[in-house]
Design a protein that fits this description.
With 168 residues, the protein is of the alpha/beta class. It has a single domain, classed as 2,3-Dihydroxybiphenyl 1,2-Dioxygenase, domain 1, CATH 3.10.180. The chain contains 5 helices and 7 strands, in the order ααβαββββαββα. It has a 7-stranded mixed beta sheet. A hairpin with a 2-residue loop joins strand 2 and strand 3. The longest helix has 14 residues. It is globular, with a radius of gyration of 16 Å. The protein starts with a helix and ends with a helix.
Length: 168
C-alpha cells in the first residue's frame, strides 16, 4: 500500500500555515500571486531516490533534469493540495547539491506574478531579496530567505518552463 503524501513530504498544511504567517509578519503581500509549486528538500542522494519513487504514487513525473549541478524531479500531483483559497498541484524534489548540506523537509514555495520582478524588489526595499537570477533569460527569479525557509517569485509557471525545456 502506498504511503500518504503527508508521510512522504510531511504535512504541507502545517508548513504553509507557518510560511504564510511569516510572509504576513514581514508585510509582504502575495495575494495577487499564483502559488505555483512547493519544494521538498532531501538530505542525501539515497533519500532523493527513495522519495522519487514514492512520489510516483501521488503524481506524474513531468521531468527529471540536471539543474545547477544536481538532479531535480518535478511532479504534477494527482490530487492537488488545497490551502486557503490556493490549489497547489506541482511538487519539486531536488537532489542535494554536491558538497552542500540540507535538512530534509519542505523548504520553499514559488509564486508566479505578472508584475516585473524589479517592481517587487523596489516596493519592498527593507526586504533582502536575492536578485542574482533577476536577469536570466529563462525563468528569471528573485528569492527571499528567512528563518530556514525561502520563497521565490517568477513570471512563468514551472510547468510552462518545463514545456519549453522539452521543446529544446
Amino acid at each position: 500500500m502506498a504511503k500518504a503524501l503527508s508521510d512522504i513530504i510531511t504535512d504541507p498544511h502545517v508548513y504553509l500555515e507557518n510560511l504564510f504567517s511569516k510572509i504576513e509578519s514581514i508585510g509582504l503581500n502575495v495575494d495577487d500571486c499564483f502559488l505555483d509549486h512547493i519544494c521538498y528538500r532531501v538530505a542525501t542522494d539515497d533519500e532523493y531516490q527513495t522519495k522519487k519513487v514514492e512520489l510516483l504514487d501521488h503524481g506524474i513525473l513531468l521531468i527529471e533534469s540536471m539543474v545547477n549541478g544536481r538532479m531535480i524531479s518535478t511532479y504534477k500531483l494527482n490530487v492537488a493540495l488545497h490551502f486557503n483559497n490556493r490549489i497547489i498541484d506541482v511538487l519539486e524534489l531536488p537532489a542535494p547539491k554536491p558538497g552542500a548540506s540540507y535538512s530534509s523537509g519542505l523548504e520553499h514555495v514559488e509564486f508566479v506574478t505578472k508584475e516585473p520582478l524589479k517592481n517587487i524588489v523596489a516596493r519592498y526595499p527593507a526586504l533582502k531579496f536575492e536578485t542574482f537570477g533577476i536577469d536570466k533569460e529563462i525563468n528569471a527569479d528573485i528569492t527571499l530567505k528567512f528563518e530556514g525557509q525561502c520563497i521565490r517569485f517568477h513570471n512563468q509557471t514551472l510547468e510552462d518552463v518545463i514545456a519549453a525545456e522539452k521543446l529544446l
